[in-house]
Amino acid sequence: MNRDEKTAIVAELNDSFSRAKFAVVADYCGLKVSELQQIRIDLRNCDSEIRVAKNTLLKKAVQNTDSVSLSDDFSGTTAVVIAYGDPILPAKVVAKFADEHEKFKIRSASFDGSKIGVEELIALSKLPSKDVLLGQLLSVMNAVPTGLVRVLSGVPRTFLYGLQAIKDQKEQAAN
Question: In whole numbers, what is the pLDDT of the chain averaged over residues?
Fold first, then answer.
C-alpha cells in the first residue's frame, strides 16, 4: 500500500469517526469471513458499519474526533464498529455477536465522546430503543392529565350517586 492509498484510507476513516455517535473496538482474531459478513449485514441494517484497518492508520484517523480515547485500544487484530444514528441497536448487535462468537472480544467503546467499558456497553445494549423510550415517556406524560381528570370528575360522580340513592329511597318509601 503506497502513501496515497494510506492517506485516502485515513481521511475516509477520519470522516467516519467524525460522524460517529458511537464506536466499538473489538478483536476479531480467528473469525471466519462468513461470520464477519454476518455482523456486517446486521450492522448495515441499523445505520452502522464494521471496519478493519491497520492500527497505525486507525490511530491517525481517530485524532481530532470524539473517539480519540479509543486510540489506546488499537492493538492486535482490530475491528471497529461505527454507528452514525441511534447507538442502542448497534450495541445490541455487537453484544449479541460477542455472546455467540467467543473469538469476537469487545475491548472498549466510545459513546458521545466518552470512553465506556464492556460492562457499560452490555448495559447499553439492554436498553430499549429510542422510539420505545419516547413512547414510554409520552405514556407517562399522558397519565398525569388523565389521572387529574379522573380525580376531578370523581367529586360530581359521587354527588350524583348520592342523589340517585336518595331518589331510590324516596321512591321505595312512596311505594
Answer: 89
Radius of gyration of the chain (CA): 28
> Helical H runs in the chain?
3-19, 33-44, 55-61, 88-100, 118-125, 130-174
Write the pLDDT tens digit of every residue in 94-140: 999 999 999 999 999 998 888 998 899 998 888 888 888 899 999 88
- State the pTM of this model: 0.74
d(CA 65, CA 74): 15
- In terms of Cα–Cα distance, which of 17, 22, 160, 3 is closest to 94? 22
> How many CA atoms lie less than 13 Å away from 113 in the CB half-sphere?
3
What span, in angstroms and rounded, lies between the C-alpha atoms of 36 and 28? Answer: 8
Task: Output the pLDDT for position 90.
Answer: 92
For residue 76 the three cell numbers come to 492486535
β-bridge pairing 114-116 and 48-52: unpaired
